[in-house]
Amino acid sequence: MSSADRPQLAYLTDALNELKQKGTHFRLRVLEDQQAPVCHYDGKQVINLASNNYLGLANHPELIEAALKATRELGVGSGAVRTIAGTMKIHMDLEEKIARFKNVEACVVFQSGFAANAGTVSAILGKEDFILSDELNHASIIDGARLSRAKIKVFRHKDVAHCEELLQEVANEPGRKLVITDGVFSMDGDIGPVDKLGALAEKYGAIMMVDDAHASGVLGRNGRGSIDHFGMHGRVDVQVGTLSKAIGALGGYVCGSRDLIDYLYHRARPFLFSTSHPPSVAATCIAAFDILEQEPERIDRLWENTRYFQRELRRAGFNVGGVNTPATETPITPVILGEGRLTMDFSRALFDEGVMGTGIAFPTVPEGKARIRLIVTSEHTRANLDQALDTLERVAKRMGILQ
């Protein structure tokens, strides 16, 4: 059916045509096997540098076996939202497992990291309250802030002094204040100043919240995240994490005091109105946290690969952050090109040469900051990385990106 048949949707076709003219339109690439360092997308074998599967847990044999065992014993679905009939013992076991791992009183699991962020912010604040948010915070934080109807104050990226200025502006206003930051920023890979913002929140009596999606499994002891990385246990009121990246499965979670979690059981809309995880997913996540404790060498390999890959990209002349752009400090490695069309063309050319690197352009990143976003994992071999580096440099020179 075309827009000629349904003219009321013609504006969507116009918007898509505009994306095509800008060169930033894309189509979904289809993975045909496991989410692995080398895999097949659209029938082509590629070195996969686009995945959040940091530690290779998405296809770890112990996680696969845990999923199969839970399915055989408990079925494929939970049957309901958790407040009606869908809370299974395995869901409670997972929440207790995460709470112990994160050194907090309690935890609640959501169906996605996006739902965890949006559901929590919108539940704990109202229209009389204030949110102080880093300008590069994740879209789920932004949406949650809007849903809360609280007044939103945006501080410059990682600018603690600017955040304090905004806190001073609203200090005498009625309502609660919430300071929120990503632990690791998803597009630039830099680490949020959790320690300094946490101290600031304490000084002004504000709630402190951290989205640790890209820090979970990457920073801190055994991947406990940015709160552990900065030694901020007990000083961050709301910790959000994901089960969809380093943990290798699906979902998000919120950690904090028992009262916070009990309140979210009663008021977080994604929790109240979405069917709970299949038991296979909960079992997989439990097994993943065991692996984090038992195989810390995976995180060591992740960082070894990251340091090597980023060093070689810089040596070749690529811009991977710094000078008017945040500098990466984690396995998230942006190759910044600036112009959207060039970036998407580079991404497609890399794919044709056997490297999967996703092009990111406006509105995900600001105009003029388009980039190829690359992530190495613990499971990439040195040969994988060298082949990818050779391809990146060769294609970039052919396209005039590098001299």
UniProtKB/TrEMBL annotation:
Tagged with keyword Acyltransferase: yes
Q: What is this enzyme's EC? A: 2.3.1.47
**Cofactor(s) listed in the protein's UniProt record:** pyridoxal 5'-phosphate
Q: Where on the tree of life does the source sit, at the highest rank? A: Bacteria
User: Which residues does the record list as N6-(pyridoxal phosphate)lysine (modified residue)?
Assistant: 245
Q: Does the keyword Acyltransferase apply?
A: yes
**Per the record, a Pfam family?**
Aminotran_1_2
GO MF assignments: 8-amino-7-oxononanoate synthase activity; pyridoxal phosphate binding
Q: In which pathway does it act?
A: Cofactor biosynthesis; biotin biosynthesis
Which key words tag this protein in UniProt?
Answer: Acyltransferase, Biotin biosynthesis, Pyridoxal phosphate, Transferase
Domain Aminotransferase class I/classII large residues, every copy: 45-392
Which residues lie in coiled coils? none
Q: Which reaction does it catalyse?
A: 6-carboxyhexanoyl-[ACP] + L-alanine + H(+) = (8S)-8-amino-7-oxononanoate + holo-[ACP] + CO2
Per the UniProt entry, what are the Gene Ontology biological process annotations, in alphabetical order? biotin biosynthetic process
Q: What does this protein do?
A: Catalyzes the decarboxylative condensation of pimeloyl-[acyl-carrier protein] and L-alanine to produce 8-amino-7-oxononanoate (AON), [acyl-carrier protein], and carbon dioxide.
| PANTHER family noted in UniProt | CLASS II AMINOTRANSFERASE/8-AMINO-7-OXONONANOATE SYNTHASE (PTHR13693), LD36009P (PTHR13693:SF3)
Q: According to its UniProt record, which protein family does this protein belong to? A: Belongs to the class-II pyridoxal-phosphate-dependent aminotransferase family. BioF subfamily.
The subunit structure is:
Homodimer.
Protein name, per record: 8-amino-7-ketopelargonate synthase
